[in-house]
Amino acid sequence: TYVGRTADKRMADQEGIVYPPGTVLYEDSGFQGYEPGVAQTCRTKKKPRGRELTAAEKWSNRQLGRIRVRVEHALAGIKRCRIVKDVLRNMAEDTSNAVIEAACGLHNLRIDKRKRPLKTSRNP
Fold this sequence. Notes:
Blueprint: H1 8-15, E1 24-26, E2 40-42, H2 55-78, H3 82-85, H4 95-112
Parallel strand pairs: 1-2
């Protein structure tokens, strides 16, 4: 966690993250210019000025968008813990890191224990 408004790319550069071999990194527009040593990076293609995207580029963007939606839903699930969204004041040094770890753990527990409806066959 970083205090204030810090660009995603700047945070990633400062952390010096090391990825396992064969990692595929899905980036959003906040990481433009971030090129870590991974097997593959995937980012949506922007529409060129005055032209349209090809059908293949549109299809690729839709596939990446489907993955991105799942990521955004996970982030929203973590933010259900209101302490993650609110400003923490008068806290010790590593409190914000502990709070986000606890929120992620609660989200994972909630997902693991979720009751999913049984699939029933409509054919008699």
